[in-house]
């Protein structure tokens, strides 16, 4: 009996994992790929962005691919076997981990769980590397190193936004940390079949790099800012610019969908630390309501202070 291959896509917060998955799914005519997405925080957003491309996309509960989340991964995979009893529903599985995940937990589960290893095969791991921020993340984010050490291949993202020399610096860093990993281009993967076409020898990595530290994200907080009425973009942009300018190094990622005054289409907003990327207009709301939601993951900041500042500043600017 053929085992169902599982490929893992990992990478630190804001590296571009969801964009990478969207890229390879857009041209994928094979509806037999199951996509599992794990996010850190109480509100999931990435699965809603992928869902229009692939209906078989599911959000795993908040966490970092450890503890309860791994139980849900196992239960979901076992349910796939039940679905495949009469006909082949899924022949490939893609798992996107949260940006704060240490891959040790999911790798150990897939390789050692007696109920899974006989029916599923770990195909490989691709790590998405933020070319701009990798040197900083390597020294400030404890999750970055295990994600790089564990992969067989990596993709450098946001190369179009780099300064001269950034790519060479990041490539040298990658070679130092994981000289066996292969650099690949996102455009090499035109669909899911292309991602799974390459065969990897999934070798164990040095265990001291892949300790299953379930508390590596203990000091990170997730907060969700919600706005029930359309947002004044000038006021919001001023507040966000001030926030990122002063506290950007503590804001690991921000992502949200905003409904703006005088604009029909909702706007997708994304950023990493001090960097705010050009907003994108979505064809329609991904929520079932018109509430704006901005999800932030921070470390070293009190999430309640950010929420209070947003309400205070935006409330003041909207009334003056």
From TrEMBL:
<dbReference type="GO" id="GO:0005737">
    <property type="term" value="C:cytoplasm"/>
</dbReference>
<dbReference type="InterPro" id="IPR011629">
    <property type="entry name" value="CobW-like_C"/>
</dbReference>
<dbReference type="GO" id="GO:0000166">
    <property type="term" value="F:nucleotide binding"/>
</dbReference>
<dbReference type="InterPro" id="IPR036627">
    <property type="entry name" value="CobW-likC_sf"/>
</dbReference>
<comment type="similarity">
    <text>Belongs to the SIMIBI class G3E GTPase family. ZNG1 subfamily.</text>
</comment>
<dbReference type="Pfam" id="PF07683">
    <property type="entry name" value="CobW_C"/>
</dbReference>
<feature type="domain" description="CobW C-terminal">
    <location>
        <begin position="220"/>
        <end position="314"/>
    </location>
</feature>
<dbReference type="InterPro" id="IPR051316">
    <property type="entry name" value="Zinc-reg_GTPase_activator"/>
</dbReference>
<keyword id="KW-0547">Nucleotide-binding</keyword>
<dbReference type="InterPro" id="IPR027417">
    <property type="entry name" value="P-loop_NTPase"/>
</dbReference>
<dbReference type="InterPro" id="IPR003495">
    <property type="entry name" value="CobW/HypB/UreG_nucleotide-bd"/>
</dbReference>
<dbReference type="Pfam" id="PF02492">
    <property type="entry name" value="cobW"/>
</dbReference>
<keyword id="KW-0143">Chaperone</keyword>
<keyword id="KW-0378">Hydrolase</keyword>
<dbReference type="GO" id="GO:0016787">
    <property type="term" value="F:hydrolase activity"/>
</dbReference>
<protein>
    <submittedName>
        <fullName>Uncharacterized GTP-binding protein YjiA</fullName>
    </submittedName>
</protein>
<comment type="function">
    <text>Zinc chaperone that directly transfers zinc cofactor to target proteins, thereby activating them. Zinc is transferred from the CXCC motif in the GTPase domain to the zinc binding site in target proteins in a process requiring GTP hydrolysis.</text>
</comment>
């Amino acid at each position: 009996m053929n085992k169902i291959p599982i490929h893992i896509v990992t990478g630190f917060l804001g590296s571009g994992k969801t964009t990478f998955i969207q890229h390879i799914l857009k041209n994928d005519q094979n509806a037999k790929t199951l996509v599992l997405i794990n996010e850190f925080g109480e509100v999931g957003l990435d699965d809603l962005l992928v869902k229009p491309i692939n209906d078989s996309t599911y959000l795993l509960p908040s966490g970092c691919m450890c503890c309860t989340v791994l139980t849900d991964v196992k239960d979901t995979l076992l349910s796939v076997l039940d679905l495949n009893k009469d006909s082949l529903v899924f022949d490939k599985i893609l798992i996107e981990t949260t940006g704060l995940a240490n891959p040790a937990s999911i790798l150990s589960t897939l390789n050692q769980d007696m109920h899974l290893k006989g029916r599923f095969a770990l195909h490989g791991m691709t790590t998405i590397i933020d070319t701009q921020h990798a040197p900083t993340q390597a020294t400030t984010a404890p999750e970055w190193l295990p994600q790089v050490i564990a992969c067989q291949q990596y993709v450098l993202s946001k190369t179009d936004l780099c300064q001269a020399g950034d790519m060479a610096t990041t490539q040298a860093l990658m070679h130092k940390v994981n000289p066996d990993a292969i650099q690949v281009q996102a455009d090499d993967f035109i669909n899911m079949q292309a991602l799974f076409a390459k065969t990897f020898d999934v070798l164990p990595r040095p265990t001291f790099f892949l300790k299953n530290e379930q508390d590596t994200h203990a000091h990170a907080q997730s907060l969700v800012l919600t706005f029930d009425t359309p947002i004044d973009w000038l006021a919001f942009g001023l507040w966000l610019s001030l926030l990122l300018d002063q506290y950007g190094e503590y804001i690991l990622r921000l992502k949200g969908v905003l409904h703006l005054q005088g604009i029909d289409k909702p706007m997708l907003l994304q950023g990493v630390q001090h960097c705010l990327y050009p907003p994108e207009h979505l064809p329609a709301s991904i929520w079932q309501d018109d509430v704006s939601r901005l999800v932030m993951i921070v470390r070293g900041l009190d999430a309640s202070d950010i929420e209070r500042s947003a309400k205070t500043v935006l409330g003041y600017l909207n009334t003056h």
